[in-house]
Amino acid sequence: MESDRWGILYCPKKGIRADRKRWSKIQRALDLRNVQYDFVQSESSESVERLVRMLIKNGYKTIIVVGGDSALNDAVNCLMEVDDATRSTISLGVIPNGVMNDFARYWDFKEYEIQQTVDWLVKHRVRTVDVGCITYQDDEGKEAKRYFLNCVNIGLIADVMNQRRQARSLLGSRTLAFFASIVMMAFHRFDYKMHLKINADTIDRNVMTVCVGSGRGYGQTPNAVPYNGLLDVSVVYQPQKIAHLFAGLWLLVTGRFLNHRSVHPYRTRKVELTDTSRARVGIDGRLLGRLEGACRITVEQEVINFLIPD
User: Fold this and answer.
1) I want to staple 181 with a disulfide (CB 3.0 to 4.6 A). Which of 40, 56, 85, 164 is the partner?
2) C-alpha distances in angstroms, 80 versus 131, 146, 302?
3) What does the alpha-carbon distance between residue 111 and residue 97 come to, in Å, rounded to a whole number?
4) Is the pLDDT score of 201 beyond 70?
């Protein structure tokens, strides 16, 4: 495999008819810069890891994911399976094509500025970034690991993700699913009995949601940076009044989430959870399921080569 040939994984948005037109625009941008590449397309979210492993096995040194946070998460987990020497020779890049694109947006990659994104990727400017890691027990009681670039959500936010996925399968529309999930929140449980340790602090009480971010965590860990070897944590207690909940949503949207009185921020290298009341867990926008038993969240510093803007 030529060292300058890209392996491109295209992850279409489910149910978006304009995706074929979008891929044509990406092709034109690549051809304009005379990029040599091979292209594969995922049929579903389950096929992404299989295709990334194939690209790694076939010797591609530049792997570009045309997708969102969950597709990047799959690629990172495949890269973390290989030995350090092999991983150090591979660079990962992204052309945003997801629902949130939070990690791409951190680096100022914009979904509809395709030519600008390709121009930056061609320059091959590499930043070695951190990945977080959650270690937990799987359904068979065995220790399992899942890595993340952006964040882990435990509690209410992961439940909202689950509600939105269920609503979308019924309604078929992202917009309708979003509003339906917001309405369903009014009838939802808002707190979970949790026991966790962060630095010297032990928290043993009802908690609404916990976000552990190596990245900005969809606005919940806005000060996190993916290259300092640390995790930002936001522990959110249930507001005393429903008005405070909507105020928190407004602060989240406007980038001032940490100003809310119910949000307690931390910075650490490790979070230990011994009890989460079987709360749901979301990782980089994708549901992991419910936690059984204890788990811990750590960070591995500067282990992924990521292509960043000039």
Assistant:
1) 164
2) 9, 10, 12
3) 6
4) yes
Residue-wise burial string across 235-271, b where 16 or more C-beta atoms lie within 10 A, e elsewhere: bbbbbeeeeebebbeebbeeeebbebeebbbbebeeb
Query: Rounded distance, CA 283 to CA 171, Å?
Result: 24
Q: Which helix (H) or strand (E) holds 251?
A: helix 242-253
The whole-angstrom separation of Cα 167 and Cα 5 is 41
Q: Can you tell me the distance from the alpha carbon of 272 to that of 208, in angstroms, rounded to the nearest whole number?
A: 17
Which residue spans within the chain are E strands per DSSP? 6-10, 37-41, 62-67, 91-96, 126-137, 143-148, 151-155, 192-198, 201-207, 209-213, 231-236, 263-268, 270-275, 280-283, 286-290, 295-307
Residue 106, pLDDT score: 95
Letter string b/e over residues 272-297, b meaning 16 or more CB atoms within 10 A of that residue's CB: ebeebbebbbbbbbbbbeebeeebeb
- What is the token pair recorded at 59? 């010797």
**Alpha-carbon span 7 to 268, nearest angstrom:** 36
Three-class DSSP category at 8 = strand
**How many CB atoms sit inside 10 A of residue 177's CB?**
19
Question: Burial letters for 9-22: b for 16+ Cβ neighbours within 10 Å, e otherwise?
Answer: bbbbeeeeeebeeb
Q: Which range has the worst mean pLDDT, 43-47, 76-80, 106-110, 184-188?
A: 184-188
Our CA angle for 179, 182, 185, nearest 5°, is 155
Structure-derived torsion over alpha carbons of residues 262, 167, 161, 135, reported in degrees to the nearest 10: 140
Which stretches of 98-173 are DSSP H helices?
102-106, 114-123, 156-171
Q: What is the mean pLDDT of the chain?
A: 86
Does the pLDDT value for residue 60 go beyond 90? yes
Encode pLDDT of 268-282 as tens digits.
999 999 988 778 899
Quote the DSSP letter at residue 130: E
